[in-house]
Write a structure and sequence with these properties.
Blueprint: E1 4-10, H1 14-22, H2 24-30, E2 34-37, E3 57-61, H3 62-70, H4 74-77, E4 81-84, E5 86-91, E6 97-101, H5 102-105, E7 111-115, H6 116-127, E8 135-138, E9 142-148, E10 153-159, E11 162-173, H7 180-184, E12 189-205, E13 212-218, E14 221-231, E15 234-244, H8 245-253, H9 256-267, E16 274-277, E17 281-290, E18 294-295, E19 298-300, E20 306-307, H10 315-335, H11 343-372, H12 376-391, H13 393-403
């Protein structure tokens, strides 16, 4: 552990580790010293894949693939991902439906589903490679205090019962939506409670999923069913079911047979008959947006900056675009001899991401409100819209590009191989 770093990343989860991986080539070429502070002990079992029926998963938009390709880890990730070849969108009990396919859009996949455990292991394995000598992984450890100073940040690290005082040019907070550090720093946030819960579980249909993802809107709430890799010969799909608070508790209390019967009734038989369900989890849904995402010497990133409704599956993809954009901004600043914590540098990053955040959050929030409304005119309008989308190739392409994260030019992670 050094006494001074150029960058300290608070949180070594998928967002924090992705930022470090994005900076790996530039770290050596530009002399960047980086520390990652993570309270969970680092696993050192390499790339051991430990499959679990109940593994949580994340949907990566097709546009997120290029980021991990440029980090040099996509080929490893592909060992345990499930491509999404088709997306079926439908409104239960109504005529509206639309289908998107990778073949029609002339792409290998509309997106990919990856188990969080595998993505985390691949990221950590990359950060333990010999070429990552300028990246220190401090764990288990916690950031006890961050104090802005004259041109640098003072960071107090608590580790093994002892505290250490470090300094850095920039602190990046990637410690999740329940960031206590964000509160201690007085960073306010706006939130809107949806008065809903997301119930998540892995379920098995009685037939292969064939790479099809479903977005099904019901009177109880929208449902997403994502294809997963088979486990011990069992077909698996990841279920995300948005429910009212009361309905959530009722379904959580049911035995497996009762739950599967309710799921079948609401979802229908498009994916087959559901024959098994794993552990169920539920968490309240709310739209959260930090009122400050940058200060001099400080950036708030990922779920610590924004938490979205899961209806469109765009939360992590938005965070990853922020990771790439920030990495590019920091590389440019270093090349120009500017401090990574320079407020103008960080404001430029935030301006680049502002419209993307507003558009993505607005789409997610608006879609949720539109498809949960029981207003007859809105119901008719959304079903006419789905039907029009299904028969209009141009509209379908625009919608598909948005779902794949390709509707706006994405920040391109700079490459440093062979540079000095």
């Amino acid at each position: 552990m050094k006494q001074h770093y150029d960058l300290i990343i608070v949180g070594g989860g998928m967002v924090g580790a992705s930022l470090a991986c994005a900076l790996v080539p530039a770290a050596e070429a530009l002399g960047l010293d980086i520390a990652i502070v993570e309270p969970v002990p680092l696993r050192r079992d390499g790339l051991s894949y430990q499959p679990s029926y109940d593994a949580r998963a994340t949907a990566l938009a097709y546009g997120s693939r290029s980021a991990y390709e440029r980090m040099g880890i996509w080929q490893t990730l592909t060992q345990h991902i499930t491509p999404i070849g088709e997306i079926h969108v439908s409104d239960r009990g109504h005529f509206g439906a639309s289908r998107l396919s990778a073949a029609q859009q002339q792409v290998p996949a509309l997106g990919y589903v990856i188990e969080n455990h595998w993505l985390g292991q691949v990221l950590l394995n990359r950060l333990q490679a010999p070429e990552c000598g300028r990246i220190d992984y401090l764990c288990p450890a916690e950031v006890a205090e961050v104090i802005p100073g004259d041109g640098q940040m003072s960071v107090t690290i608590s580790r093994d019962g002892c505290t250490s005082a470090l300094t850095c040019e920039l602190v990046v907070m990637a410690d999740g939506g329940r960031s206590e550090l964000r509160q201690r720093l007085g960073i306010g946030y706006r939130y809107s409670a949806y008065e809903q819960h997301a119930l998540i579980a892995n379920v098995s249909p009685d037939r292969p999923h064939r790479g099809i993802a479903y977005e099904r809107f019901t009177d109880q709430g929208p449902m997403a069913l994502l294809p997963l890799q088979e486990q011990d010969g069992q077909h698996r799909c990841a279920l995300v079911w948005t429910l009212s608070d009361d309905d959530t508790q009722t379904l959580m209390d049911m035995d497996d047979a009762g739950f599967l019967a309710q799921l079948q009734q609401r979802f229908g038989y498009r994916a087959g008959r559901f024959v098994q369900v794993g552990e169920r989890h539920a968490y309240p849904l709310q739209l959260v947006l930090a009122e400050e995402q940058v200060r001099a010497g400080l950036v708030v990133l990922g779920n610590a900056a924004h938490a979205l409704h899961p209806i469109a599956g765009q939360g992590y993809n938005l965070a990853l675009r922020g990771v790439v954009s920030l990495a590019d901004q920091l590389i440019d600043a270093r090349r120009q001899g500017r401090s990574l914590g320079d407020l103008a540098v960080l404001q430029a990053y935030h301006e680049r991401m502002r419209s993307d955040q507003q558009r993505t959050i607005g789409f997610s929030d608006g879609t949720m409100k539109l498809f949960t409304s029981r207003n007859p005119l809105l119901t008719l309008g959304r079903n006419l819209g789905l039907q029009a989308l299904d028969v209009c190739p141009t509209a379908k392409t625009l919608f598909a590009r948005s779902a794949m994260g390709l509707d706006t030019p994405a920040p391109v992670l700079q490459q440093w191989e062979g540079r000095s």
